[in-house]
Amino acid sequence: MLDSLFSPKSVAVVGASEIPFKWGTYISSNILDGKFTGRYYPVNPNIKGVFGFTTFPSVVDIPEAVDLVFITTPAKTVMQILLDCVQKKIKNIVMITSGFSETGPEGIQMEKEIIAFAQKHGLNIVGPNTMGIVNTHCSLYATGAITRPKPGGISIIAQSGNLGYQIMEWAESEDIGISKFVGSGNEAVLKIEDYLKYFKSDSETKVILMYVEGVDDGRVFVDIAKETSLHKPIIALKAGRTEIGSKAAASHTGAMAGSFSIFKGVMHQTGIVFAESPRQLLTLSAAFDSFPLPKGNRIGIITLGGGWGVVTADECAERGLRIPELPQSIKDELDRRLPPFWSRGNPVDLVGQPDFQLFKDAVELMVAHEAFDAVIVLGIVGSKVFAYKAAEAVLNLGKMEKNVFDDFVKLLYIHQNEFLDRLIELMDVYNKPILPVSLSKMPGDETVHSCGGKHKVVIYDSPEEAVLCLSKMYQYNNYVEKRSTVYA
Amino acid sequence: MLDSLFSPKSVAVVGASEIPFKWGTYISSNILDGKFTGRYYPVNPNIKGVFGFTTFPSVVDIPEAVDLVFITTPAKTVMQILLDCVQKKIKNIVMITSGFSETGPEGIQMEKEIIAFAQKHGLNIVGPNTMGIVNTHCSLYATGAITRPKPGGISIIAQSGNLGYQIMEWAESEDIGISKFVGSGNEAVLKIEDYLKYFKSDSETKVILMYVEGVDDGRVFVDIAKETSLHKPIIALKAGRTEIGSKAAASHTGAMAGSFSIFKGVMHQTGIVFAESPRQLLTLSAAFDSFPLPKGNRIGIITLGGGWGVVTADECAERGLRIPELPQSIKDELDRRLPPFWSRGNPVDLVGQPDFQLFKDAVELMVAHEAFDAVIVLGIVGSKVFAYKAAEAVLNLGKMEKNVFDDFVKLLYIHQNEFLDRLIELMDVYNKPILPVSLSKMPGDETVHSCGGKHKVVIYDSPEEAVLCLSKMYQYNNYVEKRSTVYA
Lengths: 488, 488
Fold this sequence. Notes:
Two copies of one chain form a homodimer. Chain A has helices spanning 3-6, 23-33, 78-87, 105-121, 161-173, 192-201, 218-229, 243-253, 260-268, 278-290, 306-318, 328-335, 356-368, 384-396, 402-430, 463-487, and strands at 10-14, 39-43, 49-50, 53-54, 68-71, 92-95, 124-126, 132-135, 140-143, 151-158, 178-183, 207-212, 234-238, 273-274, 299-303, 348-349, 374-378, 434-437, 448-450, 456-458.
C-alpha cells in the first residue's frame, strides 16, 4: 500500500529553495546530493530555479506523473497544495510543515480539516510536523536533518524525528545498514500501525526499529505487532514509561502515552523486543540483522584475560543466560594446546597466547559442540592494539626498522580480518551466533564485518552489550518457537 | 608508605631485554619510550645492553640507590633476586613474574616463601603475576601492555591486570586523566586495602577506581573504605556477583569472591559507588573527577528535540532523580525568547533555534535557580554536525563557495567551544553540575573539556550516561553529608 510512497519514481518538493536554513532547502539538497535514483521537481512560484532545476509554480504544472510530494511551506498554504495534489492525482504526501495540532486550538482545527480531506480523497499523508522519510535502496534521503546511512535491513519508525534522525546518524557513523526511515510526526493520517504493516510486508526490511511515545488505538497496534513479530523482529523503545516521562511525552507529541505497566503487559504478548535506551535500539537491531538466533541460552565464553571472563559470566547470569561446564572433549583438546595451568573451565582463558590458529580452533571447538548455543569471544578482535603499541615503543627506541614495523602492522590487520571471516564461516556452518567483543579500537576498525553472505558479525565494545543482545535474541527466539508451535 | 614505590627516582628492571614478546622488553620499552623522569637500570647477566643502556649482572652491581625493582624473570629465579634486593637495601618490588599461587601447589608453596621473606625484611611487593604500575605524574608507565593516559586525578586498583589496562586504554583514547595504576596480581604481600590506604593519602589522587573480585579481610577493607570515601569517592566494580561469576573469579585469581549480597550489604555502609560494568567504572570516575557534586536530586533538562527530553525524563525518574516544574520566572523569561508554541515545561524544549546566546542564557536561567540542583543539556553540544551536513550538501551542489563553507565550519567549532567554556564558568559560579549530552561527534571533538580550573565538563554520548552519573553523584553526596553530620 505504501510502496509508491517509500519507493517513488518521481518526487516534487513544494517550497523548494536554495536559501540556507529553510526546510525546502534541506529537503531538496538532501535529495539531490543524496543522488536519488528517481526524478526531482522543485515547486516554488517565487523563484526560477533550485540547484540548477527549473521550478514549477504548482504541482499541477509538472509535465509527468508525480509519485510523492513533500510540502515544506507554512501551515496556511497546505490546503491549497492538497487540492492541487488531488487535481494532479498525487496520492502520497510527506507533510514536513509544522504549526498544526502541536501548537494549540487553531492548529488542531487545521489538522482536522486535513484528516477529513485526506480520507475523502484517499491520500497517504506522512506527518504533518515530520522529519521526513528515507529509503536507502533508491537513495531517497529526504529528511530535514541530513544523514545518509548505507543500505541495509533495518527500517525505522520514529515518533520523534530528532531521535530517529540521531539513530540514523549513529548507523551511518558505525556503518550499520538501514533500509527505510519514517518520522511519523503528528500522525494525522498515517499512523505507527500503518508503517508497521507496510514494513511487515516489505521484502527489504529484515528488522523493524521503533521509537514509540504513544499509540492511538492499542488493540489495532497489538494485533499488527503480533502478526509482524512472528516474521520479523520488532525492536522498540517505549518513551513515557514513567509519570514524569509520560508528562513530557504529552507535551511533546500530544499523544496519550498511557501507563507503561499496562502497555508493557499487553506488549509482552506481541513479541516486541524492548530496548532500554535509544543506543540500545540500534545495538539490538544490528544484532538481529546480523547473527543467527541462538536456539538456547547456554553460552560458551573465550577470553584472553581472566577478569573479562568473570565480568561476562556475571552479566550472563544476570540476563538469564547459562554458562555450562566445559565438556571433557574440549578440555582434552585444549590440554594439548595450552600451558598446564590453564583454567580448564568455561570461560576458557586462552592466557594471552598470541596464536590466531589457536583462537580459531578454540572458537570452533566451542561452537561445534552441542553443549553451547552461542559463543562470546572476548579481546581477540582488538588484541592487535596491544601488539601495535608494544612494537611502536620498540620502533620509537630505534630497535626496529620502519619497514619491519609496517609489515608487522599490516599482518595484525590481516590476522584480525581472517579471524572475523572465520567467525562468519563458522556461523554459516553451525547456525549459532558468535559475538566478538573488541575492547580496543584502531583507525579503520569496523563495527560490522560482512563477507556479503547471510550472516554478519557485529563487533562489540564491551561484554555487557554482547550479553544483552544474546539474551534478547534468545527471548525472541523462544517467543517465535512457542507461537509457531501453537499455530502449527 | 608507598610513596617511593609509586614515585621512584630510580628503577631497575631484572630480566630487561630488547627481544620482542618478552615481559622484560615490554616493561623496559614502556618505561623508556614513556619518558620516565627518573633513572632506569636494566639488569641482565646474559646481555651487554638494552635500548642503549648498559646492563648490570645483578641489582647489587648498580652504582646508586634503587627505589624500585621490576622482576620479569621466571618464578624460580625470584628468591635470589629478593636476596639481592635486601643486600642492596631495596624496599619496593613489582613482581611481574607469574607461575605462583595461580598455577597450583608448587606455586602456592613458592608464594608462601616469598610472603615470609617479605615480612621478615619489610619488603613492599606488588604482585606477583601483576600487569605492573603506572604513575603519570612522573611519567612512569611500567605495565606489560602499553598505554599512556595523560596525567589526571583518577587512581586505579585492578584485581585483573588485563581489565585495568583496558580501562587505562579507554582513558587514553578518551583523553581522561589518570593519576596512578596498580594491577594487584596475586596480592601475596600488598593487598587491595594497602593501595586504598595509600591513595587515600595521596594528594594527586582525587577519585579511586577499583576492580574487585575478592578481598581477604573484609573487616579491614570495610574500615579503610569507610574512612576513605568520606574524603574521596571510591568507584568500584564488584566482579563475581553471581554464583557462576564467582566461580569464574575463583578460577581466575583464586580469591574467594564470597556472596555478593553479603558483600553489597556491608559495602553499602562504606559509601563505595558501585559501577555495573567496566565501562561505567571509567564513566563514573570521570564524572566525579570533573563536576561539582549535586546537593539534591532536582534536575533541569534543556533539549533541542522533544523526544530526547522524554527519554531523559524517564531515565531520571527510574534513577531516583526528580524533574521539578519549571518556575514561573523562567517561563516568563523564555516566553520572550521562544516561539509562542514552546512547551513551557521542564524539560525545556528550545525547539531547534540555532542561537547559541539563547542556549547559554537558558542554561544560566536553570542553573541559577534554586529549584534545580543540576542541569542536563541535550543536543546543543554536537548540534554542529547537523549544521555541517546541511552546509556540506549545498557546497557539494555548487551553491556555496569553499571558503565560505570553511569559515562556517570554523565558526561551528568556535560556538561549541565557547558554549563549553560557559558551562564551566557557570559551574564555578553556582557550584552545580551541568552535564552536556552530545549525540553526534565530529573529528577533533573532545570527551572532556577543561579550562584548566577546578571543574571540567565531560561530554556524554547519550542521556542515560549523564543521568547515571548524576544519580550516583547525588547518592554519594547524600552519604557524605549524612556521615559528616553524624561525626560533626
